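Q: For a teaching handout, I want to show students what a protein-ligand complex looks like in token form. Below are the inputs, and the small molecule is PM9. Please produce the holo structure.
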Amino acid sequence: MTDNGAPMPEPYKIKVVEPIAATTREERQAILEAAGYNVFGIPAEKVFVDLLTDSGTSAMSDRQWSGIMMGDEAYACSRNFYRLTETVQRLFGFKHILPTHQGRAAEHILFATIAHSDSQIPSNTHFDTTRANIEHIGATAVDFMIPEGTDPETYHPFKGNIDLERVEEFIKEVGPEVIPICMLTVTNNAGGGQPVSMENIRSLKELLRPHNIPLFIDACRFAENAYFIKEREAGYGTHTIPEIVREMFSYADGCTISTKKDGLVNIGGFIATNIDDLAEAMRNLLILYEGFPTYGGLAGRDLEAMAIGLEEAVDERHLAYRVAQVRMFGEKLAGVGVPVLQPIGGHAVYIDVKRFLPHIPQSKFPGQALTTALYIEGGIRAVELGTVAFTKVDPETGETVYPLLELVRLAVPRRVYTQAHLDYVVQVFAEIVKRKDELRGLRMTYEAPFLRHFTARFEPI
Ligand code: PM9
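A: Here is the structure, written as tokens, with PM9 included.
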């Protein structure tokens, strides 16, 4: 709402436009078949509204584009690195900043430095790239979401919270010496874009402190999380977003981040920490895998755009609009009969596919089936976060373990689509709702050994 009571329009005007393609249903059928019924394989030019991800898909501002021209492309110690360092230190309060080309590169460097095959890494929910980086080393990633987080229908203001009691029991059970860090994902992407409360972050730090277990935050959506704290947590209504961000990270010993999300850039990330010897060890690996520690796989211009993007990310008007846009989108979808995960998260609307398509069992990939229907019906690209992305095989019994939640995510890129685009998606859904009982499952014909959802191929049953 604006102060005159009118609904808030986009808090920006459009300076550059990019045409988007219209395709026919027949073309979309053929494109999908060629892509093995996996929307990751569809040429982006053949997508009308692309809600695959909010990662790297933001529109940069005029300030960021002018920052690009201020790129200092010196190999070492470019001025943009110092600008980024100053911005991150001011916003997050960490001493050491190691740029990386994106989030998973930060995860790789962190876990390659601290984890071994016997390590156990607890989290509220590890994102899939984080889990894969941990498991690639042979270590174990463990999720301790609060029970409310696994129920898509109940309301809880901070469904992203970690279950402190279970973390405490876990430390007792495995011993603190095998836990190199605890990781907290804010907001919790794999659990529906749900925020973590300040109280939960603070209490987690208190729980870990006596065991000397450092707390790291996966900070991809730190600004949206801070906005939810301001909106929902007692005592924070009058705080500014930068104040909330600073407090959130004051309880952490470090963070990894893909700045392709809240950081409002198309490529970038970093690791930050206060732990001197860890920073030193990671810097050495950074040189091996990413580049000199002052650029970490990025150009000077990328560092500049990132520094500006991080400042724009904590602008309260930007966040108020962003959260309201996603919420209104979710409410409209619910209004046409689509079961959406409650409450609606920060960066995306998540569809509860178990309730939407109860006739398709998880063994036949109902979430994937919905993503294919969305493309054929309206040229819309969404992502499955269910059986394809998160199925595990029990190492002891060899049994297939399906994820509790079967979700399809409609992620909203930042500053890219207008309300009219999202209304179009709602209309397409209204059509799908009418004949949803006719949708059929899929059979998987190819899967990679890890992160299979990116490249898996399917055929309709
Ligand atoms: N997230 C997303 O779409 C992009 C990859 S999957 C299509 O949500 C968290 C919480 C993420 C995340 C990426 C990464 C990895 C780490 N943590 O993609 O490597 O949501 O920059 O970041 C995606 P990068």
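A: Two things your students might notice: The domain at 62-313 is CATH 3.40.640.10 (Aspartate Aminotransferase; domain 2). Residues 84 and 307 are 5 Å apart (CA to CA).
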